[in-house]
Amino acid sequence: MKATSIVVLTGAGISAESGVATFRDGDGLWASHRIEDVATPEGFARAPELVHTFYNGRRRELADVAPNAAHLALAKLEQEFKGDFLLVTQNIDDLHERAGSQKLVHMHGELAKALCANCGNRIACASDLSTDDVCSVCSTPGHLRPDVVWFGEFPYKMNQIENALERCDLFISIGTSGNVYPAAGFVQQARYAGARSVELNLEPSEGVDYFDESYHGPATLVVPAFVE
Ligand SMILES: CC(C)NC(=O)[C@H](Cc1c[nH]c2ccccc12)NC(=O)[C@H](CCCC/N=C(/NCCC(=O)O)S[C@H]1O[C@H](COP(=O)(O)OP(=O)(O)OC[C@H]2O[C@@H](n3cnc4c(N)ncnc43)[C@H](O)[C@@H]2O)[C@@H](O)[C@H]1O)NC(=O)OCc1ccccc1
Q1: Stated pTM of the model
Q2: What is the 183 CA–ligand 1 centroid distance (Å)?
Q3: Is there a cis peptide before residue 48, judged by omega within 30 degrees of 0?
């Protein structure tokens, strides 16, 4: 792999063949749920039970899915690549970790964690959350929420991500539709830094014209083919 510093961005498409729903495909999450109700702080304030049901369901599903060849190919690339490497995922599932990825940031949070909206305490979360749950630090009930970034909220690890984008000479975007910012703007930031940009996706994304190269097909085929 002719590169000295790589940034990889992944979206729901990389987990689709593992059986994790995407957002915008026909049977995607946004086809059966309103973003305003389940993925905004306002929605959580209005009807926290509805939000807990949405994320509890997605957390339970993780027990029935496993990393696929695309997740495994990225973990192998990370291990073998001698240069700087950062995997930035928009996904809140834990399939990258289970595939062995370590140089990984979840810019939109993780289902495997809960956050107290009152005191900011973070805890590991492997079971359902409810409004009866009490924070072990501030001992107040009803403030524990999924540790995910909702619309209108600031994504996580943005400084680390932007530093890596400024340094990278290869930017690879996998399984994302390029609809949601700031992630959808990373390709421009990488190009501005002089990086070669590559899209690996089932179909052309919203931002396909920003990429130097694009290879379209199922992630389990195009990702191993590109990184090996
Ligand atoms: C709708 C959109 C227009 N709105 C936004 O972008 C908003 C507002 C906004 C900010 N800046 C803007 C600029 C212009 C316009 C709007 C904005 N952004 C925000 O609110 C963000 C916070 C957004 C985070 C929201 N939370 C998510 N997820 C966590 C929760 C949860 O998971 O429930 S977003 C969620 O949807 C996003 C899109 O999903 P994708 O992963 O791309 O999935 P999708 O289904 O859309 O596409 C799947 C793709 O895979 C492909 N595919 C399918 N199967 C396969 C397959 N088998 N193989 C390969 N590919 C496949 C398909 O072809 C498709 O292309 C992901 O980010 C995902 O995490 N916060 C913020 O901006 O803070 C301030 C700021 C500004 C600048 C700099 C710093 C801070």
Answers
A1: 0.97
A2: 7
A3: no
